[in-house]
Amino acid sequence: MAAIIEVKFFNTYILKKTNAGGTNAGTGTAMWNGSFGVPSSLGGYPRTTPQFADNNNTAGNWSIEESRIRGGYNNTSTDYGAKAYLVEDKPNSSKRVNTLIYSGIFNSRTGVNNTNVFSVGEEITKSLDPANGSIQKLYAEDTNLNIFQELKVSKALIDKDAIYSAEGQGTSVTQLNLVIGQIIPYLGEYGIATNPESFAIYGYNKYFSDANKNVILRLSRSGLDEISSVGMKDYFRDELNRIKVAFSPGKIIGGWDIYTSQYIVSTQRNQQLTTGTNYNKETTLAWDEKINGWTSFFSFKPDQLFSIRNQMYTTKGGKLWLHNSNENIITQGLSNGNTINNSNITVDNLQGEIRVGDIVYGPGIIKGTFVLSVTTNPSGAVVVVNLAQSIPDNTQLNFSSLARNKFYGVNYPSNITFVFNDNAGVSKNFKTVEYEGYNGWQVNSFVSDPTGEDELNSFYSFSKDSTSTVLSYEEGLYTSGLNTLRAGFNRKENKYYAYLKNSSLPVAGEVHFGDQMTGIKGFYAVVTMSTDNTTDYGGEKQLFQVGTEYIINNGYY
Prior knowledge:
3% of the residues lie in helices and 42% in strands. It is mainly β. The longest helix is centred in the middle third of the chain and has 11 residues, at 233-243.
């Protein structure tokens, strides 16, 4: 029921109280710092704070306030106040993805800080062509600002704007001090797509990707160049095309490795859209300006990549990792109890810290043993290694942190793939393979070029000659009676050589095939070599050159 209340103050208005807490609208304590409310005897609802509580009126949440200070006649009245920089009565927000905006100046010497001042009374915006997409990356150098849009790369003058004479002379007629001057696009229809994380810079060269064009680019004094077309055009065409998925794109992480002076780019597909085998495939590459080409694949996929003080760092899973480190930390300990054909080793009397990926060596330890996981406890640690083995109690164990090709605690082998294609128009029989370098290399595959297609069971297929794995000098060692023999590479005059044994399947018309013959038949051969799992595991393995001996097949020239 409504109540008629006589108010003796002028210019009053009604406010609504808000109850704090309680399950019902009328319970709890009123949040109020003003009126004492209207007495309940008049039908009003008083202020329901503890000192003026009225249990009969806890349901009330309305009150009257005065618009004038202390309710006095002609006293100062409350108001909305001035609306600063109001352009529209109903301003609506808008996203101008192709526009730059700048604030007031910041001067630490004079104490001027206007970085939060954006005056609409001044021209503080600079727009680029919206047809080239949103602005993804800005990079300032000297007096130029490089602007990377999705489909275009431009530069703008900073704090200067030159107006030249009508004759086109180099001397300027006048100089105008503008924050952002004329915008000049670089030649070429390239942008940075939506992958600003691929950007890296060293000296004057800037590197980035354009997933829309499936290319990797370099911006230098000569303009934009496609460095992905230098021997890797097909690879980046396919790989970047898999990254550019509309509803769930992957990432292209780029950075400069100041230690090796290389641009590192890692293409990482969306893991949810990729099978485990393809996701773990090496897709991190290095570009070297000294040879103007791509040098190597790497087995790591960083979350971020950057260089500080002549060292390259990456982040992975919230951890910081140093690359190209030659530091070797040795941790020692004793095995606790007998380990019998097991990969779990209990270690105590630790002197240092055991890390994932550490190389393990000691009496009776199988070569190539490294740490997969570590669980510490007050007395020591339980270490899980990659190879099951038997270790007696109180065996001295050493854990070495220095291992090449160890990324994020995981050890990887080095491998290289190349082609033997001497005298390309001649059919050959490759008899041997030899190399100069360090001990510990093996041949994983030695495969000839495919023959023409043949029909078999309504399917057409190619046939190739191939060989079994050629074991390394150390892994191929075996004894026969009192004789020591090599099943893979042998060594002579500091060169490692091996005969090739055919392991291919029979093809129609062949009389001798497979292990009945030696050598690989073909016009050329594709060879893959890698480091083994035992020889100086984690140590340095140099490879200088690889060669082969072949004979020309009869009837083919």
